[in-house]
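Worked Example 4.2. Consider the chain below.
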Amino acid sequence: MDTLTSVRAAPDRAEVINIANRLARESTQLETKNSELLRELTQSLDGTQALLCNIVDLYNPHLGGHGRRVARLVVAFGEFLKLGPVALRTLRVAGLFHDLGMLGLKRERLFTPWAQLSETERNLMQSHPEIGASQLELLPGWALTRAAVVGHHERWDGSGFPQHLAHDAIPHSARMLSICDAYDEMLNKPDDAPRRFTEDEVLNHLRKERGRQFDPDLIDRFFDMLALRAPGAGEVKGVLEVATMLDALREGVRLSRDVHNRAHMVLLSKGTLLRQAHVLRLRALRDEHSVIEPIYVVPAAA
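Applying the procedure from the previous section yields the following C-alpha cells:
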C-alpha cells in the first residue's frame, strides 16, 4: 500500500517540466537582477571616483592633474607587466588618489625646501600616505588600493616612510606606484616651481635610485616599458594643441599647458581632462579678470 501511495504521489512528467521551467525563469530573473545591481555598483564607484577627482581639482589642481597622469602611467605599467583586471583597477584608483592626504597642505608649500617647512607641514608631508589611506577606508573593497597608497613613499632600502618597510615587505603595487609617482612628479613640475627637470634628468635620477629608492627589478621593467613608448610619456606632447578663449572652451578636452591666474599661480594643471565644473569655474574667475587667456588644449584622446 505504501508503495502504491508513493508511486501515485510522484510528480508526472508535465509537472516536472513545469517545475524546471519555473526554476529556469527564476534563475534568469536572479541573473538579470544581479547584473543590474553590479552595473549600479560600478556606476556608483565610477561616480565616487569622479567626485573625488573633482574635489582634488578644486582644492589643488596640481595634485589633480598629477593624480590623473600617474593613474594612466601606472595602469600602462601594469598592462606591460601583464597584470590582471583586478590589479589594474587597484593601480588606477591608487594612482588617482595616492596624494589625497596632501590636501591640507597649501599648494605653494609643495615645492618649498624641507628646511623651510614648519613642523606641522613636515608632519603632514610625512603622514599624507596614512591620511589618504584612512580616507579610502570609507569605501569598501579598496583594501588593495589602500595598501598601495600607504606604501608609495616606502623605499627599497628601508629608509622611506611611514613604516620604514624594505624590499618585498613593501606591497608590489606600492613599489610600482612609487616609480610612476616620482617619474611624473619630476617630469611635470608646474611653470612656477622653483626648478624643472628635463626627461633625461628624470631618467638619470631613477637610474641613480635603483636599489635604493626603487625596486631594482621593477625599475628595469619600467625602463623597458618606456623604451617602447613615445618620448615624454608623462607629458602631453607630440600632438597639435589649440589656443582657445574661455567663451569657446568646452568640456571633454585636455589641457596641454597649465592655466594661470594674473598672479601666475596655477589654476589647473596640464594634462587635466576638462569637465563642465572646470569650465564653469574658469569662466567665473574670468569675470574677475583672474584667468590668463588663451587656454591651450588638445583633443581628449590625445
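The chain is about 55% helix and 5% strand. The first helix runs from residue 2 to 9. Compare this with Example 4.1 before moving on.
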